[in-house]
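Researcher: We plan to redesign the surface later, but first we want a full-length starting point. Tokens attached.
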């Protein structure tokens, strides 16, 4: 069984890397078809690795991010035996940019208005430990490092990050609660210029699993709502040009749905599906899609 896990992990890792390298190789063709963004129009796309799938806007800047959170659990944690677990993290992120989108048009927005040509790609693998502190509390430290590529130019960026997640499960009557926190440092270094940027953040969240389920045939669907507040220690430059609009705090509200038999996509189990709405300073807005929780 161990050799099988290792073989599958190696194949998944190789597949993600092959997709990323294919996008990088294809970028030479993309440059001939697209204009190269001027320096003042550059987007810190490396940060998209940490934010997940969604539509993000700030000021007149906007990006659609597709993040495929591949991961593979190598060992499940067992609190009764004080046994820690660990898993591979293998997220592949692709960005599609457009600069004149208005989220106020929702829900009638048209994704066909996007340039369907990918304009950035990143692959940032890593390792996450799962440490059961008690029956209701677990810690998950993680570290990741990888590469990102601006597909409209030649800029290659080294992306890295590390941090700690904490999950605390509570229940009151028929309602289950989850209190979660995350400390994160994410950074990027541009290969050609040597410039480095980074941000530190602290996020705190509460999720409430609502009582009751809805039955549809053999499926039982439950629901949850959650809220997240994120603070950025050095004011995040996510979509804005350097030195202009920045974000120091983001508030997020969302929901998710779960099916007793779960979702499956490309043979990967997805425990839940949901959507959330984010707001921050300088008219930062986002609609994000998640697999049950924000982090």
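Model: Full-length starting sequence:
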């Amino acid at each position: 069984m161990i050799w099988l896990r290792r073989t599958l992990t190696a194949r998944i890792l190789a597949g993600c890397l092959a997709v990323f390298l294919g996008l990088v190789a294809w970028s030479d063709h993309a440059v001939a078809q697209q204009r190269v963004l001027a320096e003042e129009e550059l987007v810190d796309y490396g940060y998209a690795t940490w934010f997940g799938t969604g539509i993000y806007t700030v000021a007149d800047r906007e990006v659609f991010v597709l993040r495929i959170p591949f991961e593979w659990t190598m060992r499940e944690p067992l609190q009764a035996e004080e046994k820690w677990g660990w898993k591979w993290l293998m997220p592949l992120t692709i960005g599609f940019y457009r600069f004149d989108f208005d989220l106020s048009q929702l829900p009638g927005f048209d994704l066909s208005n996007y340039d369907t040509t990918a304009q950035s790609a990143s692959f940032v693998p890593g390792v996450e430990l799962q440490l059961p502190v008690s029956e209701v509390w677990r810690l998950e430290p993680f570290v990741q490092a990888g590469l990102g590529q601006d597909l409209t130019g030649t800029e290659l960026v080294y992306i890295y990050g590390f941090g700690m997640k904490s999950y605390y499960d509570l229940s009151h009557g028929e309602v289950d609660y989850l209190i979660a926190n995350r400390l994160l440092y994410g950074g990027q270094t541009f290969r050609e210029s040597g410039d480095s940027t980074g941000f530190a953040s602290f996020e705190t969240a509460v999720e409430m699993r609502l009582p009751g389920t809805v039955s549809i045939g053999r499926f039982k669907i439950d629901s949850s709502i959650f809220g997240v507040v994120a603070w950025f220690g050095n004011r995040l430059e996510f979509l804005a040009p350097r030195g202009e609009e920045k974000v120091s705090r983001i508030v997020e509200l969302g929901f998710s749905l779960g099916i007793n038999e779960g979702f499956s996509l490309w043979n990967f189990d997805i425990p839940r599906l949901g959507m959330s709405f984010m707001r921050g300073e300088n008219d930062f807005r986002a609609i994000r899609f998640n697999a049950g929780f924000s982090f």
